[in-house]
Write a structure and sequence with these properties.
The chain has 212 residues and is an alpha/beta fold. 42% of the residues lie in helices and 14% in strands. Residues 155-174 are annotated as: Disordered.
Length: 212
């Protein structure tokens, strides 16, 4: 009797405009999604948020790249996450962009999908974990008044960190190390103490994967 074929392993594929943002999500997703399979990235730099009238072909391109990546890993594509910066403060447009992209992802992808639509940008999510900053640079600390902000309303979080975090100045390339530090500190949860609705929406989408 021949042995049963080995079950293919599972993989989650991450896409996004920036390699730093993709790496941040590689740290974040396993912390939010227990028993997470391997998380890999694709390099397609396709912008979704500014292209609501041209979503279908762009999402189809991402789907095809994700399937090729999974096949190259000899794995089954079980989840797809795409990051986009809203690049503006959260308002009614945030809801419109999130709904349109989420609908297109669910229509196009053959697996679970989640949209990491950061408002205003990824730095808004990093600021939810203030204790992580001094773990990366000893001279960094978030001001007490910044910890109480609604980060979806902070117009330029990257520039804000560069002005107020301390020395050396914050750079985008620091972002994966900051998220890795937050994970190592055990601070990642779907409802961190800070305030950022766009982070909560992403965490809720991942949580919904477990229920399907």
């Amino acid at each position: 009797m021949s042995p049963a074929p080995r079950r293919r392993r599972s993989v989650i594929v991450v896409a996004g405009e920036s390699s730093n943002d993709r790496e941040v999500l590689q740290h974040l997703i396993p912390a939010l999604y227990p028993r997470c399979p391997k998380v890999v990235t694709i390099n397609d730099k396709i912008k979704l948020a500014p292209a609501l009238l041209q979503l279908s072909p762009r999402v189809e391109t991402l789907r095809d790249s994700a399937l090729r990546m999974a096949e190259g890993c000899n794995a089954e594509l079980v989840g797809f996450v795409v990051h986009a910066d809203l690049d503006e403060v959260s308002d009614q447009r945030y809801d419109q962009v999130r709904e349109r992209i989420t609908t297109q992802l669910r229509k196009t992808l053959p697996c679970h999908s989640a949209l990491a639509l950061s408002a205003v940008e990824m730095e808004s999510w990093l600021m939810l974990f203030p204790d992580a900053f001094p773990k990366v640079r000893r001279g960094w600390t978030m001001r007490p008044e910044d910890r109480r902000k609604d980060f979806t309303k902070l117009a330029n979080p990257k520039e804000h960190l560069q002005r107020h975090l301390g020395k050396p100045p914050y750079r985008e390339s620091d972002s994966p190390k900051i998220m890795a530090a937050a994970v190592a500190l055990g601070q990642i949860s779907a409802r961190p103490p800070g305030n950022n609705r766009s982070f909560r929406d992403f965490a809720d989408q991942l949580a919904a994967w477990k229920k399907k």
